[in-house]
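**Reference record**
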Amino acid sequence: MVDQYRGTGRAIIDNILTFEVEDRFHVDNPELEQVNIKSRIIPLLLRLLEMLDRQKASATFFVLGWVARKFPEVVTLIDARGHEVASHGFTHADARNMPKAQFETELWRSRALLEEILRKPIHGFKAAAPYLGRSQLHYYKIIAEAGYRYDCSFLPETSRMESKRPFLVSTDTGKSIWAIPQTTRRQMGVMIRIGENMRVLPGWYGLSSIEKLNESGFAAMVNMKLWELDFHHPRSTSKKVFRYSEFGNLSLAEEKLRRILEYFRFTSCHEIMKIVENRESSKA
């Protein structure tokens, strides 16, 4: 059924591809800076980078500060392979539950570490929270004050097409930041995150959603967590109930990603933002 989408999107538009570089244990224990737990990031990253090379796709990698500190070679490898490195905070704690001072510290600490490793500016941020909405716009102001140019945490509360474009958030001090919305689709009254839930959605549904957006002139954002590509990653012993959203379809995640890369074009947030900013400057 999905073969009907082969090639239909490639000539239309560049979509956004992002990955959160973290281990599963960061999600299970977000407030802790893990010390002696074995990471599974490096072999997963190497396999993913080879896939992206084969499909000629570029992406943005939101690297957790814990990962960058322990494995600075991960950061340099992503950059050396032509992809964008951006910040995912430091400890994976939920930004929505942080005091302002702690959130500011996470923002500055993670960006400073990444910039120290790469010796160049870091422009993007994605919160470790599931999402930020319009009721949390004050967080964007803090992110802007920390020196970031764009954020990928925004979840639209409406399915209207205008909510799918990047928009500018201004601060009281005159700084501003672009919010890049996550891709959503409303089905039977439920707002579904296409990128975040790609692994658990039927393959044809994700493909048709991206195609629909592209035909309307919008870029889709597909976001995955690196640990989703690890079918053998340890299941949490702290949860008594199997959660399909966390562990379901892990064996299909890599194949679904490969198919989407075959059917559509993908690039990084940085490249998309250059297009958006050039378009806005030409209007001025």
